[in-house]
Amino acid sequence: MRRTRRSGFTLIELLVVIAIIAVLIGLLLPAVQKVREAAARAKCQNNLKQIALANMSYESAYGKFLPGVGKNGCCWGTWMTPIMPYIEQDSLARLYTNFGGLDPLPRYNAGANLQVTQTRLSIMTCPSDDPQVWNLSATAILTKHNYVLNAGNTTFFQVGYPLGCVGTACTTPFGGAPFGFYNDSDLVSDSPTVYTNPPTNPDLGKMGQQFAISAIMDGTSNTMMASEIKQGRSSDLRGLTWWGGSAGFTTFIAPNSTEQDVLTGGICVVPPTENNPPCTTTSTTSRARFIGARSFHTGGVNASMCDGSVRFVRDAININTWRAISTTQGGETFDPADAGG
Questions:
Q1: Which of 74, 83, 85, 236 has the fewest CB atoms within 10 Å, i.e. is most exposed?
Q2: How far apart are CA 220 and CA 232, in angstroms?
Q3: Per the confidence metrics, is the pTM higher than 0.70?
Q4: Which of 23-32, 220-229, 234-243, 309-318 has the lowest mean pLDDT?
Q5: Which residues of 246-293 form beta strands (DSSP E)?
Q6: What span, in angstroms and rounded, lies between the C-alpha atoms of 183 and 158?
Q7: Can you tell me the mean pLDDT for 272-281?
């Protein structure tokens, strides 16, 4: 009687096929990840481009760039509010009240303003990061975002280091910035007295200074407009760009530095908890209130320039070059090749 041969794989053949498939997947996966990251980086650059164009449109309308924060500091709105009509968010802009005002009127985290600050804006969110929120209360869950304006080369107080220095006594002179933040403050928080309305502190109402494009003496193509930060995990307030203390960045530390951000007046959740970058809430005369540029992109951060262009800046950029491209009146020249991307 004729025997029929059974078709199919033997166990050894099946294991060989599985091994080959596993090797192919192992070879393909890094390529897929690279393509995915390239797409995320391109989307992030487009977001920064749109923010840059919106700021330029604002400048065309008002003759000045956006304010980094409202005129009374941290808590009554940041540049996120006046930019809204220029990023197709007119309805949110109309909802926000008391921009730049004082108590007892609404802050960014109260009243009708919560309808705005609980809204996630895709144009303000880098796809390489995971969207985070700040659970302020059961009824106030505020969104965090990734893009911040350039506050210069030192601190959000926008003065030289060490604090209180004058002239040649400054080891790191402040070279100007295209956006105003906590200028005219007490160099500790926002102001030396409790917020009141009407104000009793003569320094109130002077923060968030606005500048015309003509004030950028170093040239618009040589001066950064905006860059990235990581959204803080848990209660960490980095990325809460509705709040003045997280609405900007400075170049005092390098991109994606392992050095600490200084979240004076905010909440800092230190690593390894929640995978946040290093931070502290304590300002010193040599390291006062600031946040450095950071991203989840491999090897650097995206940054838009004051002429509307966007560049990828490598982590390995020379620190003096990095600081130079943040200043408006430092007198430096800048070769785009120095950024490394």
A1: 85
A2: 31
A3: yes
A4: 23-32
A5: 248-249, 261-262, 279-280
A6: 6
A7: 87
